[in-house]
Amino acid sequence: MQYICVTETTPISTRAADDLGPGPLAGMRVVELGQLVAAPYCGQLLGDLGAEVVKIEDPNGGDPMRQWGRQKPDGHSLWWSVVGRNKKSVCVDLRRPEGQDLVRRLVAQADVVVENFRPGTLERWGLGYDRLSADNPGLVLARITGFGQTGPYSGRAGYGSIGEAMGGLRYVVGDPSAPPSRVGIAIGDTLAAVFAAMGVMSALIERDRTGRGQIVDAAIYESVFAVMESLIADYEIGGQVRERSGSFLPDVAPSNVYPCADGTQVLLAANQDTVFRRLAKAMGEPGLATDPRYATHNARGARQAELDRRIAAWTATMPWERLDEICQEHGVPAGIMFRAPEMLADPHFRAREAIVRVAHPYFGDVPMQNVFPRLSRTPGEVKWAGPELGRHTDEVLTRLGVDAADVARLRREGVLR
């Protein structure tokens, strides 16, 4: 049983300026197909920047993200309030021919479709790109999967965790004395979503020149692999397999976690030559910057543990507040590990409005991250939190031209929620 949510659409070029909302993507129409993290986060990014995004939902419970993460006793998910923000929810049963026809009508006037099903799923529903683009040559279809649309692994189930492992990230995360660890967020899915969103923007710019859309093929493992720096060259040319190193990067020193007298753990990052000179002066040992053992990046990397012990002995003599004063005075990057309480209390977060509070019918005001990056003239906006399941069905279909009697009939027949 599969379902899809869709949006009423009119080409951007025919929409009146006063119909467009805020944000640089105002007027762009997106149909979001998929569930969990990858496609929904891509949709969130596009919606944050002003696109109209309408989301796929299963009428019998909706996207599983509605149940994931921290929940109130009534089952409402805080995570959904973030990843579902700025979206419209309309549910159509794709088991029915009427549902499939309705989706094709809607996509014919959309700018973008985002999906994260296994390759071939859309084709089985009669929603493959060949068919959709025949009615809408300018359509951009972003397809997010574990392994991509081609290749021997393309048909495999591919969750974000598997993509993180195959892309090389899982192996290098954690302490070397322990098995490979994970980052504490769904980083593989979110990286794929970011790359997919970047691909959508690029395809839309190209469409302005040619009038033609295209497929954006974003694989989770490739999105992770893309941020793995010189991992491959390190091995093939340098003869080194990058290993887990815990709180530091091998041969990059000093850049580690150091103790303070009050028990605070502080990050210092002074691996660049000029910054290390400032750190040496802050420590009251300016001669370290010209000492052949520490004067260059390679020399410091070769004596990384020795240098870290020396810095730790210095930081341990004072509380974090005093260390922070000294580091800021000398221009040395320093900071503590922030959790949610520190973020909510921090004056810099507050001054830049990095956290916004969004009205929610069950939670009251929900604090969440603002829209990033910040644009000076057409900034994005969080307009509403993740909506109730099927909340926008009547609005969307009525504006599409489906009359109230047909909406009622389709609802009675189970095609709509």
UniProtKB/TrEMBL annotation:
<dbReference type="Pfam" id="PF02515">
    <property type="entry name" value="CoA_transf_3"/>
</dbReference>
<dbReference type="InterPro" id="IPR050483">
    <property type="entry name" value="CoA-transferase_III_domain"/>
</dbReference>
<dbReference type="InterPro" id="IPR023606">
    <property type="entry name" value="CoA-Trfase_III_dom_1_sf"/>
</dbReference>
<keyword id="KW-0808">Transferase</keyword>
<dbReference type="InterPro" id="IPR044855">
    <property type="entry name" value="CoA-Trfase_III_dom3_sf"/>
</dbReference>
<dbReference type="InterPro" id="IPR003673">
    <property type="entry name" value="CoA-Trfase_fam_III"/>
</dbReference>
<protein>
    <submittedName>
        <fullName>CaiB/BaiF CoA-transferase family protein</fullName>
    </submittedName>
</protein>
